[in-house]
Inverse folding.
């Protein structure tokens, strides 16, 4: 009992003051509150993203209904016979210039063009803001797809929408079994493209060249694109051909893009 004589309450032997437990509790509560705030913020973001994804899905479901009206979808039986009502679509957005469809993928969307390559990164084809954006032409291209190389962009969405399914062509078997891209234009024209190559390129790659000095330069470009493709078909490409380059992002590689390239096979008026 003597050793406690003269010691202040809260002091340890030797005169040192014992730490207050109240302070550690406050720190613990601050950490818990901060963690809870982070969790709430993360959940809010997830809910917001899911909401945008659902809104995007509904937007394009509605646009498909506008495009096809009450007619039964015909793309599964004969994509060349499909009818797209561009008058109705342009009443929604006059910048809609085509409709793209790739069998055995989710790619079945209107194609738009703006005065730059920024607007439709964050706006749907009905001009509503949405992170999924739209499928859009490079603004340098002609909207009637008459350039030597027409470039078409779309996001790689985690829910598989927009141009995410371009990555299916990374699989050699899928590439071999799915070789056509269908493009529907105002006036009833149906353009059929044969896929000849695909692969990863840099975001500033020469693959995004739209016009060429002469036929020889274009033929050189075509040979290079086909030869360096991860997968390709053995088809002859000439300076008289027209191609499309479909481009999307690569997960975790901000500086790279995945492209699928196809050459115009035929054009039919239906």
């Amino acid at each position: 009992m003597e050793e406690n004589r003269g010691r202040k309450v809260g002091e340890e032997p030797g005169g040192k003051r014992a730490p207050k437990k109240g302070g550690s509790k406050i720190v613990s509560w601050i950490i818990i509150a901060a963690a809870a705030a982070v969790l709430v913020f993360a959940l809010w973001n997830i809910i917001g993203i899911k909401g945008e994804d659902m809104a995007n899905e509904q937007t394009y479901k509605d646009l498909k209904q506008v495009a096809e009206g009450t007619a039964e979808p015909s793309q599964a039986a004969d994509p060349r016979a499909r009818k797209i009502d561009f008058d109705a679509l342009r009443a929604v957005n006059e910048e809609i210039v085509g409709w793209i469809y790739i069998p055995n993928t989710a790619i079945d969307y209107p194609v738009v063009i703006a005065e730059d390559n920024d607007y439709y990164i964050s706006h749907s084809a009905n001009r509503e803001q949405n992170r999924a954006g739209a499928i859009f032409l490079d603004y340098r291209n002609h909207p009637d797809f008459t350039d030597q190389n027409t470039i078409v962009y779309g996001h790689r969405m985690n829910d598989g929408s927009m141009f995410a399914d371009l990555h299916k062509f990374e699989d050699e078997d899928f590439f071999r079994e799915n070789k056509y891209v269908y493009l529907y234009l105002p006036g009833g024209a149906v353009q059929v493209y044969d896929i000849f190559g695909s692969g990863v390129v840099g975001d500033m790659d020469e693959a995004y060249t739209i016009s060429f000095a002469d036929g020889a330069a274009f033929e050189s470009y075509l040979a290079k694109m086909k030869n360096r493709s991860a997968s390709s078909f053995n088809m002859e490409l000439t300076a008289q051909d027209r191609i499309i380059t479909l481009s999307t992002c690569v997960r975790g590689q901000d500086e790279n893009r995945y492209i699928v390239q196809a050459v115009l096979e035929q054009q039919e008026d239906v």
Notes: The CA atoms of residues 37 and 84 lie 49 Å apart. The chain has four helices and nine strands. Residues 1-5 have pLDDT under 50 and may be disordered. Helices lie at 21-68, 86-92, 172-177, 215-228.
